[in-house]
Design goal:
The complex is a heterodimer of chains A (219) and B (246). Chain A has 219 residues and is of the alpha/beta class. Chain A folds into two domains: 88 residues, Methionine synthase domain (Methyltransferase, Methionine Synthase (B12-binding Domains), Chain A, domain 1); 122 residues, Cobalamin-binding domain (Rossmann fold, 3-Layer(aba) Sandwich). Chain A has a five-stranded parallel sheet, sandwiched between helices. With 246 residues, chain B is an alpha+beta fold. Chain B has a single domain, classed as 3-Layer(aba) Sandwich (NADH Oxidase). Chain B is 47% helix and 15% strand. Chain B has a five-stranded antiparallel sheet with strand order 1-2-3-7-4, with helices on both faces. Chain B has a two-stranded antiparallel sheet with strand order 5-6. In chain B, a hairpin with a 5-residue loop joins strand 5 and strand 6. In chain B, helix 3 crosses helix 7 and helix 6 packs antiparallel against helix 7. Chain B is globular. The chains are: A alpha/beta (219), B alpha+beta (246). At the A-B interface, helix 4 and helix 5 of A face helix 3, helix 6 and helix 7 of B.
Amino acid sequence: MKGRVIEMDLLKQISDFLQQGDDGKVFDLTKQAIEENIAPKDILDLGLIAGMNVIGEQFRKHEIFLPDVLLAARAMYSGMDQLKPLLIKEGIPSAGKVVIGTVKGDLHDIGKNLVGIMLRGAGFEVIDLGKGVFAEQFVETAVKEQAKVIGMSALLTTTTPLMKNVTDLLRENGLNNQIKTIIGGAPVSKEFAQEIGADAYAYDAAKAVECVKQLIDLA
Amino acid sequence: MNKFTRFDIHEIIPKKESVLRNMGVPKGKNVSNKADGLISMAMDIFSDESRPVGIHSEILKNEFESTFEGQGKNAKDTPLQHVIPHSNRLALFALTMGKDVCEKIGVLFNDNNFALGSILDAVASLSADKAVSTYERNFSNELLKRQNNQSDNTVLSYSPGYCGWHISGQKKLFQYLHPEKIGISLNDNYLMNPLKSVTGLLVSGKDKIHIFKANYPFCRSCKDASCQGRMKRIINLRKGNERKSD
């Protein structure tokens, strides 16, 4: 019982320092938690993700803003980097796999990166294909990695039509029920998502996390 | 004839408040001390890594018609079609913050330094915008000198990708201006590299020519709407001048 209290206290500290964006402290405390044989899944769920959930909620309520969310995300990564090999070793699944990328011809990736950071913060495994990604790459990777969601980003009106190539390819291969799509970027909209047959549109990274959670349940 | 401009970093670097607004922090709200410190750090990095340069060249109205036509993808009706006939001087321009600062943003993200990377991205974008304003002012002053200070013209910029001028218009603009000379290239999707680059047209004319009703079909899907702010500034300035003359 006493051990569990100490354990919970340590995990709360991880969550608190994560919320303060203190990556050094989160790194040290995660290391300590691993050394004290606290279950990796508990460190993840009750320490890191618990902290990110608070951050996400504060962000949603406009109590904190992007720079502080990103500081917290960095702190999350400092703990996650140590935990990842242990989670894999123990066969603990993530909240779901998501393939993301900026479509071919487009080199803007800040928005896509922010979505990736927020998704990882929410416990998803993110496979980031980077910039200039072909439709086939999105679909092949999602199939190979058994990802349930493909997230596409574009910032140019000339590259947004390429998003349709992905949704078409999924439909042609009968994969559109098991692999859902979400799009984002300045020139796209909810209407455009409907027009190209994408399953969701997110106007920012926080909304993207919310949508991906819903899509994972559908897939 | 092409003219080159090397921008003074101190003149184009944004204020901390502008960076906060750009990152979605509302007026009156703030970020943690740690995040606040990163803004200063990002500004220092920008000062070290950016090489803001520009190129511009005057263009005649008839020459611009063909440039504006671009790949034939513009909206049927655009504000520029109504502005140009009443303008008196035009110049095409391109400017960039340089490749080093863009690469630095990528490096910071790769190192999980998301907050600093994201703030630097905002600083670079805002600086590019301010460099455009500097170009507007410089062109206005240049024309004023030529006319012995006898001019009340207003210079505003218009860019491909906005207000019905299709982004493919970049191609002809590049053919005329050759921004490659300052290190900007264009890909097949009309995307510039380095990313923190801007091209456009400087239009000089009476202030009223720049005022239009934002009720074009493309205005409905526009998320930028910066035209409204520019027009408001012109109208306010005009009101101020009228009050002074009263």
